[in-house]
Amino acid sequence: MASPSENQPVFNSPAIVVTLLGLLVAVHALFTMLPDRTADLWIWRLAFVPARYGPDGYFIPGGILSQFGTPLSHMLVHGDWLHLAFNCAWLLAFGTIVARRMNAARFVALSTVSGIGGAFVFWLANPDAQVAMVGASGAVSGLMGGVFRFLFNAPRYGGFAVMREMPRAVPLMTLGEALQSRGVLVAVGVWLGLNLLFATDFASLITDGEIAWEAHVGGFLVGFLTIGIFDEAWPRPTTSA
Q1: Is 178 in contact with 149 (CB distance < 8 Å)?
Q2: Which of 47, 101, 114, 115 is the most buried (most CB within 10 A)?
Q3: Considering the entire predicted model, what is its pTM?
Q4: For residue 10, is pLDDT > 50?
């Protein structure tokens, strides 16, 4: 008979999270095998470029297909292995928690709208920028925003271990409840503050490239505001006296 440890999966995460991690790694590995010039061309075709939607968009590789497709495709491409590693780590952490509450289709939908929301806010802040914005950061930030809507309810419903063992036993806060929760407001404030630091020279201490903090903020807000649409509602349990 196999021991309990032998029965544990290699990745203790839902299949959809593992699948997405594998997809992101596979896409980046493919790019590393392409000649530099070819890889650069495809990055511009798949990246979200705000200027693509302005009068100079005609000169950016990709044409009309990229205008419609890059709000989605930019999430699959990463600048380097470190960029990919950071996003995969956050996806594994926050994506696992969210994916245990909902089916794969709802999880993908929440991630997708968060990523699109991140791209939209990046465009609002930089409408004429000829910058290739890539990465799953907006989508992952949206998952984090969604987690904040139930994470601070956990102590009232059996503790944080319940989120792992019975993920739907911790109810989602209503938006009104979340906006009145000191824990939620402090966590959101810290998260937004850290991302505003990325708009300064502080970002150069972390990476040689620029950090699309606008996409982080946009994705986070979309996930925070919309998770209630995607969360699979269970009857709200009662707290113990």
Answers
A1: yes
A2: 114
A3: 0.87
A4: no
